[in-house]
Amino acid sequence: MSNANWPRIKDILDNALERWKLENGREPKMKASHEGDIGWETKEDLGASAPYGKRLIDTDKVGNGRAYETNLVKIFRGPIGGYRRMPSGGPYLSSDEIGEIAEWIDAGMPD
């Protein structure tokens, strides 16, 4: 059973965004850049995020060991379908951070 919970996952994502801002010296243009809804103020926001019309976390891949098939995990690991690895240009999440996100999804996205 995973120890990952929503506050930890939100912290990983928030810290990744802060590192990106520091490295790039500006606020990202997330909604404009991703052509669709993307956010993680709540886990429901993250679950509903669909940049470019593609769900980051398909519900059929939650809680059943298929987290590494989700677009969220895939895009943090490397480019997919013509889209760059995220966050764009880095700094990237560590393997451990990506693993925690995958564990959280595999555990059913617990609070």
Question: How many individual β-strands?
Answer: 0
Structural class by sheet pairing and helices: mainly alpha
What does the main sheet amount to? Answer: none
Rg from alpha-carbon coordinates? 13 Å
Please give the alpha-carbon distance between the first and last residues. 14 Å
The helix fraction, in percent, is 40-55%
Unreliable spans: none
How many domains in all? 1
What is the residue-averaged pLDDT?
91
SSE succession: HHHHH
Strand content: under 5%
List the helices and strands and how they pair.
Blueprint (H helix, E strand, L loop, with lengths): L5 H19 L5 H5 L8 H6 L22 H7 L17 H12 L5
Description:
The chain has 111 residues and is an all-alpha fold. Helix content is 44%, strand content 0%. It has one domain (6-106). The model has no long low-confidence stretch (mean pLDDT 91). The chain has helices at 6-24, 30-34, 43-48, 71-77, 95-106.
Brief account:
The protein has helices at 6-24, 30-34, 43-48, 71-77, 95-106. With 111 residues, it is mainly alpha-helical.
Q: What are the key terms here?
A:
111 residues; mainly alpha; 5 helices; globular
